[in-house]
Amino acid sequence: MGILSRSPTSSRRSEDNGMKLLATASFAVAFGILLGLSFPSFWITQIWIPSNPRGAERLPPGIIASESDLYLRRLWGNPEEFSDNFTIVLFHYDGITSEWNDEFEWSKNAIHISVLKQTKWWYAKRFLHPNIVARYDYIFIWDEDLGVDHFDAEEYLHMVKKHGLEISQPSLDPEKGVTWEITKRREHIEVHKETAEKIEWCSDPPRPPCAGFVEIMAPVFSRDAWRCVWHLIQNDLVHGWGLDFALRRCVQEPAYEKIGIVDSQWIVHQFIPSLGSQGKAEEGKSPWQGVRDRCHVEWKMFESRVDNAEKDYFKSLQVQSPSNSTTF
């Protein structure tokens, strides 16, 4: 039978190797601990937070700046000293920008954005995203041909807050002509929210253009209302015709209590056909006629889109769509 035995010399050599391995392992552990303490935790931890805004999942929530503003910032001292209660953004569709600085001192502190032959709704969709204007309580989106000699913005906002208006506009001087009866200025009152129009245009509860209506000429939106309206604006329907009939969808019901005309602060529509001149003469029509025709086409397209979207939504719920047309 065979017997395997180990000599004393082999045993000592094995013990020496074991001590070397133990020493090496201890050193490796100590070095690993020291290395771990020497680097920030993000070197060994992958951040992924699904609740963060899309695209920012890899950032710690405390560093995310999901909203911005249009306040101008000084390049020295305290930048906040530059800001005021209002920020003016001028959208130039005619290419004329710096010339305003020569005539109006306030223009030097305004933001000028110039893209040829576009409308204010095109600009608003692209430059007034709700997260960009989230710091502002109200957003004014006005046409360029409005007389403001009888208008005070601070007093206007006082009236809006007093009467709980989420969407509003100043009244129009009736002597200068108006398109809709509801926008006509009424003397000796602060605000009105409905009017008498053609019988076939009104319903119960009152709806546009008899109530829950402001014209797209000079609307003023609260922050919350604008977040909804921005999503309602279509990228390709830049004239905005028909939008005023759908604005009531962006306030809590009853809409006719949250939308109104401010009579104590009024403006004058000067009817300067400047946008029409940006068109092009085609098929025997003058430039302004082509622009006006496109306005009417977009109105019908917008109405159809809203109605179809509503029907599709209720169909997905397997319920009947209510009668909620965007137009009269």
**Amount of beta strand:** 5-15%
**Distance from first to last alpha carbon:** 112 Å
What structural category do the secondary elements indicate? alpha/beta
Helix content: 25-40%
Task: Offer a quick outline of the entry.
This protein has 328 residues and is α/β, with parallel strands linked by helices. The protein contains 7 helices and 8 strands; from the N terminus they run αβαβαββαβββααβα. Mean pLDDT is 85; it is low at 1-14.
List the helices and strands and how they pair.
Layout: H1 8-38, E1 89-92, H2 99-103, E2 111-114, H3 120-127, E3 138-140, E4 146-147, H4 153-162, E5 167-172, E6 191-192, E7 220-222, H5 223-232, H6 243-246, E8 259-269, H7 287-316
Description:
InterPro entries: DUF707 (IPR007877). Keywords: Membrane, Transmembrane, Transmembrane helix. The chain has about 325 residues and is α/β, with parallel strands linked by helices. The protein has a domain at about 140-315. It contains 7 helices and 8 strands; from the N terminus they run αβαβαββαβββααβα. Strands 3, 4, 5, 6, 7 and 8 form a 6-stranded mixed β-sheet that branches. It has a two-stranded parallel sheet with strand order 1-2. Helix 2 links the parallel strand 1 (about 90) and strand 2 (about 110-115). The relative contact order is 0.10. The model is unreliable at about 1-15 (pLDDT under 50).
